[in-house]
């Protein structure tokens, strides 16, 4: 079972969710998962993750929340 | 889910910033010109001073800000590919600034040669800008209501610019062409078809995202922009009527257009009241001021048109113009600057530093007290400008207040640009150190 950190960015002003996520990536260990909750697709974050060796899986919930699960590749 | 932004195609930061840092200077020039001309500039919309002031604000302040914003907004919000943005900005920006300056001087001095000089500059700068933005908006694969509205806004700018060129030729070469119908249609397309349409297109995307409101109702985002376009086409029929006076039924067209504008303003205020976090930042307040000004504009129009109203008073258009230009558009643009400039600083520093060097907090980019102070001065200046329409001896004070507010805005924006430059240097040093440390370990 993975350890999980959660960032709920749904009521945060851009770029606060991105700031918090980048800070959290810094301390993410290999077995850990970061769960980010947003109301949008964070394309800037996706490209940062792809460039820096992270995997992510995004899933849209019925209430419009985008659940993005991030871990080290 | 809310609309998205993608920054992979964002242009270099210098592209929007060269426009953003120039725009407030035209506001300073407009304020100083009003202070210099005094009450005489407000006697009617047709005085040389009033025409010069109007164009310093519209093609100086507003057009600079809106062109810069679109060169940034089109790639990131629609994925539209702007052809060689640095080159486009390097050509469009100085030519547009010079053209605006020459046009204002042409109105004040009445010299035909200045109209003759301004015309080709507008043709090249706006022709180039319209071409690259239209190609980007037409070729993108994205689909959204915001994008559809932006396309209509670009068409609105094309109509406005074409009529403006016609007027510049008529004034520059004394052709004797009838000016009044073209001027009426040019003004309404500029304010409604270009500026308001663009504001609506940007609002649909950014108000929910940056002010944490629910999205605009789908029916409103779908039908309001084409409804406005239809009314603008009906309004333009006075061009073929030829006598320069709006046809009797066209006052109904104008009223319907203002009701649509009021619907957009009241919806935005309603969404703001339902935002998910009770944050009250300067962008929120500037936009609220802009929307209240738009409502005041619609109410003023109705009251002026009443049987006992003052629709024929020579200063009635000045009242409406102050509300539209300074109340609605300058307020909204100021609010947009204070959101987008810190955001672009942060984003470009983040891209530069990667995960190794995190950028400074976005709230450090422009000090909050400086933004709030400038905002208060802006709304005081707006109040004074409106009061000066009612009591013209106030014109010089109002002009100075507006110039001061624009100068303060410029100071804040230059401060943000300097902040970026300083931290960019620091990020590059830190990144080099991190690379060296990484190789050594």
Describe this structure in words.
The complex is a heterodimer of chains A (73) and B (441). Chain A is of the alpha+beta class. Chain A has helices at 16-26, 43-51; strands spanning 3-8, 32-38, 54-60, 66-72. Chain A has a 4-stranded mixed β-sheet with strand order 1-2-4-3, covered by helices on one side. In chain A, strand 3 (54-60) and strand 4 (66-72) form a beta hairpin. The mean pLDDT of chain A is 87. By secondary structure, chain B is an all-alpha fold. Chain B has one domain (14-432): Cytochrome C Oxidase, Chain A (Up-down Bundle). Chain B contains 13 helices and no strands. The radius of gyration of chain B is 22 Å and the shape is globular. The chains are: A alpha+beta (73), B mainly alpha (441). At the A-B interface, helix 1 and helix 2 of A face helix 11 of B.
Short description:
The complex is a heterodimer of chains A (about 70) and B (about 450). Chain A has about 70 residues and is an alpha+beta fold.
User: How many whole angstroms does the radius of gyration of chain B measure?
Assistant: 22 Å
Report the principal-axis shape of chain A. Answer: globular
Strand content of chain A: 35-45%
Work out the helix count of chain A.
2
Query: According to CATH, what is the topology of chain A?
Result: Translation Initiation Factor IF3
CATH class label of chain A = Alpha Beta
Decide which structural class fits the backbone of chain A. alpha+beta
How much helix is in the residues of chain B?
Answer: over 70%
Largest sheet: number of strands, sense, barrel closure of chain B: none
Largest interface: A-B, 25 and 23 residues
How many domains comprise the coordinates of chain B? 1
Which blocks of ≥5 consecutive residues of chain B have pLDDT under 50? none
Can you tell me the number of structural domains of chain A?
1
Helix content of chain A: 25-40%
Mind telling me the C-alpha Rg of chain A?
Answer: 11 Å
Count of helix runs of chain B: 13
Q: Using DSSP, what is the number of strands of chain B?
A: 0
Examine the secondary-structure arrangement and name the CATH architecture of chain A: 2-Layer Sandwich
Please state the structural category of chain B.
Answer: mainly alpha
Largest sheet composition of chain A: 4 strands, mixed
